[in-house]
């Protein structure tokens, strides 16, 4: 079956063939030094061994530390802004970016403890605790008021949650709803389509170990499925509350499922990669999806340990540390699809829908794919990259021992560190001004106690100190409207001592 989709969905899915390389200048934006102090990471965050949390994407073009939380164990992104994070003691916080100031704001969530899973969608967040209790928070339409998390009665011992949108057309009337599915610790799956008011078991499912929308993986390696209700589909049921699963033919001995809502992958016990679902042809509002219901196994790749659908590409990691990509831009997916090497020396990867983040064996993080909202943490907003790029190393800054919060993280270019305009220098006693002609003026006191005036033209890079022209090896720059200034040069002009502590990933500034 073939269907045309609207422009928005087409833009989301149709961009792989127009990926572009970054400029040589952008290539210096990320530090290539080791990052072995990373404890865990996701597509838009990382947690260091010291328990600090760093995030990127949106207004955060590079990893930016979230202040106000510590000893972080896990992070779960929310639908439109921020995330829920859990501490090693089970405490839960919510962080989000203030739309006006761009600052990260942190709020404790005392009603939650020991969160192990979060499912976030438009107007509803669902959290699962280590005890299997389900909590939900709802955003009210119109007022955008967010309710506190409250326990959901009627279901317990939940391990994971999945969801998707459904509708049907009965008696010429279209109805729509969110289908929620709950994998319980006993291996059964339950469903709700009335905003968590009632729950019913999905018939025929037992010993389930993974749930991916309308596909379930049993511990014996069999895959089960059930129809997604759609007003255009003939399988629309008269009672949407009743869900019955049936075996999905063509797949056996499966150990992992992957799904982006349209296209699906599976890895079997022989580490072979399987595909079924949608392929795509065309671009923009002419995008067309073709359904390939019968699974095909790829002959051109083996030893697969992990895989994702990223835009119009399949990305797979093999046991020898190599990442390959193959296009799904075709009317029919061939078992002989060509897989092209993207990267080597990779120990793990995380998929973010439109991009992936990979960790090399030296601990560094690298990104590939769409970068429209700085998803790669590379320090640019270049739309996308067809070659992996190194993520900016997370760097913290302290002033006289106090950790400094930034609206956007430190950016390294040509081995020099740059920081946002108003983030630090005012704390060192300086006055910072920015004129309409994009000239920065910093006035303060120099090391010898004499008056100090630094003037920097952020367009040309021309810099003067007390009227004397000073050449800068790397001029200031602007990222997404934020002016970045050289940290060491200005700090030392203000009489401060600047020390780089590579083992901590920290710049320590001492100022009297």
Gist?
Helix content is 3%, strand content 47%. It is mainly β and 512 residues long. The chain has two domains: 2-390, Methylamine Dehydrogenase, Chain H (7 Propeller), CATH 2.130.10; 396-510, Copper amine oxidase-like, N-terminal domain (Copper Amine Oxidase, Chain A, domain 1), CATH 3.30.457.
Number of helices: 2
Q: Largest sheet, if any?
A: 5 strands, antiparallel
Query: Any idea how many domains?
Result: 2
Radius of gyration: 25 Å
- Spatial arrangement of strands, main beta sheet: 1-25-24-23-22
Keywords: Repeat, Signal
Domain Copper amine oxidase-like N-terminal: 399-508
Protein name: Copper amine oxidase
Signal peptide: 1-29
Give an account of the 3D structure:
InterPro entries: Cu_amine_oxidase-like_N, Mao_N_sf, RCC1/BLIP-II, Ub-ligase/GTPase-reg. This is Copper amine oxidase. It comes from Paenibacillus tritici. Residues 399-508 form the Copper amine oxidase-like N-terminal domain. The chain is mainly β and 512 residues long. It has two domains: 2-390, Methylamine Dehydrogenase, Chain H (7 Propeller), CATH 2.130.10; 396-510, Copper amine oxidase-like, N-terminal domain (Copper Amine Oxidase, Chain A, domain 1, 2-Layer Sandwich), CATH 3.30.457. Helix content is 3%, strand content 47%. Strands 1-25-24-23-22 form a five-stranded antiparallel β-sheet, with no helix packed on it. A five-stranded antiparallel β-sheet has the order 38-39-40-41-42, with no helix packed on it. The radius of gyration is 25 Å and the shape is elongated. It starts with a strand and ends with a strand. Mean pLDDT is 90; it is low at 1-34.
């Amino acid at each position: 079956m073939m269907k045309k989709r609207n422009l928005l969905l087409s833009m989301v899915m149709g961009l792989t063939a127009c990926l572009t390389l970054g400029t040589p200048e952008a290539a210096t934006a990320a530090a290539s030094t080791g990052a072995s102090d990373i404890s865990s990471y996701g597509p838009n965050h990382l947690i260091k061994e010291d328990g600090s949390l760093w995030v990127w994407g949106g207004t955060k073009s590079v990893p930016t530390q979230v202040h106000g939380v510590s000893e972080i164990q896990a992070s779960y992104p929310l639908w439109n802004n921020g995330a829920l994070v859990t501490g090693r003691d089970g405490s839960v916080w919510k962080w989000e970016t203030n739309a006006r100031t761009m600052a990260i704001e942190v709020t404790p969530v005392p009603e939650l403890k020991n969160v192990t899973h979060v499912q976030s969608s438009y107007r509803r967040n669902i959290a699962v605790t280590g005890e299997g209790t389900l909590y939900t928070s709802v955003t009210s339409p119109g007022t955008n008021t967010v309710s506190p998390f409250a326990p959901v009665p009627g279901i317990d011992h939940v391990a994971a949650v999945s969801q998707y949108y459904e509708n049907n057309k009965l008696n010429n009337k279209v109805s729509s709803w969110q289908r929620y599915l709950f994998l319980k610790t006993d291996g059964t799956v339950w469903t709700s389509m009335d905003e968590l008011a009632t729950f019913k078991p999905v018939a025929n499912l037992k010993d389930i170990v993974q749930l991916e929308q309308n596909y379930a993986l049993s511990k014996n390696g069999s895959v089960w499925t059930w129809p997604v209700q759609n007003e255009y589909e003939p399988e629309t049921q008269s009672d949407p509350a009743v869900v019955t699963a049936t075996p999905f033919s063509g797949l056996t001995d499966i150990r992992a499922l992957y799904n982006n809502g349209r296209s699906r992958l599976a890895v079997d016990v022989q580490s072979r990669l399987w595909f079924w679902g949608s392929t795509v042809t065309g671009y923009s509002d002419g995008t067309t999806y073709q359904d390939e219901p019968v699974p095909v196994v790829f002959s051109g790749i083996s030893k697969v340990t992990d895989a994702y659908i990223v835009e119009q590409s399949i990305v797979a990691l093999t046991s020898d540390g190599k990442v390959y990509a193959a296009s799904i831009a075709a009317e029919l997916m061939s078992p002989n699809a060509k897989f092209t090497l993207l990267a080597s020396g990779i120990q793990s990867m995380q998929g973010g829908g439109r991009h992936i983040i990979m960790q090399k064996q030296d601990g560094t993080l690298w990104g590939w794919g769409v970068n429209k909202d700085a998803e790669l943490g590379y320090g640019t907003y270049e739309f996308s990259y067809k070659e992996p790029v190194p993520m900016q190393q997370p760097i913290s800054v302290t002033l006289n021992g106090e950790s400094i919060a930034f609206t956007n993280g430190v950016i390294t270019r040509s081995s020099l560190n740059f920081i946002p305009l108003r983030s630090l220098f005012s704390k060192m006693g300086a006055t910072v001004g920015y004129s309409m002609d994009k000239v920065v003026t910093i006035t303060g006191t120099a090391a010898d106690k004499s008056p100090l005036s630094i003037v920097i033209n952020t367009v040309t890079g021309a810099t003067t100190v007390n009227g004397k022209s000073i050449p800068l090896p790397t001029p200031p720059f602007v990222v997404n409207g934020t002016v970045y200034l050289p940290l060491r040069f200005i700090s030392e002009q203000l009489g401060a001592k600047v020390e780089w502590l590579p083992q901590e990933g920290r710049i320590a500034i001492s100022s009297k």
